[in-house]
């Protein structure tokens, strides 16, 4: 069960699947919340996109998987 966000409370959002941003709730319109960003701008998001704690936001970040470095062969490499 998700807690309610009140006007003036802080929350966190994930921007571009890589950056956690602290936001302040400035209004609620139905299922959407209007959030004030640190840069002075505002954004409207659903409740499911707003996280209550920074730890919760860090857990939602996608994990970076180290890909094995494979030898890249050019299409013009003929085994010389």
Structural summary, described in words:
With 80 residues, the chain is mainly beta. The chain is built from 1 helix and 4 strands; from the N terminus they run E-E-E-E-H. It has one helix at residues 54-60, and strands spanning 10-15, 19-29, 32-36, 42-46. Strands 1-2-3-4 form a 4-stranded antiparallel β-sheet. A hairpin with a 5-residue loop joins strand 3 and strand 4 (42-46). The longest helix has 7 residues, at 54-60. The chain is elongated. The termini are far apart.
Helices and strands, with pairings:
Blueprint: E1 10-15, E2 19-29, E3 32-36, E4 42-46, H1 54-60
Antiparallel strand pairs: 1-2, 2-3, 3-4
Kindly summarize this structure in a few lines.
With 80 residues, the protein is mainly β. It has 1 helix and 4 strands. It has a 4-stranded antiparallel beta sheet with strand order 1-2-3-4.
């Amino acid at each position: 069960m998700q807690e309610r966000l009140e006007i003036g409370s802080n929350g966190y959002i994930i921007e571009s699947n890589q950056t956690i941003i602290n936001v302040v709730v400035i209004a609620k319109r139905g299922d959407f919340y209007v959030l004030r960003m640190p840069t002075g701008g505002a954004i409207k998001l659903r409740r499911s996109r707003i996280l209550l704690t920074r730890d919760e936001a860090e857990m939602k970040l996608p994990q970076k998987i180290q890909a094995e470095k494979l030898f890249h062969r050019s299409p013009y490499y003929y085994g010389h």
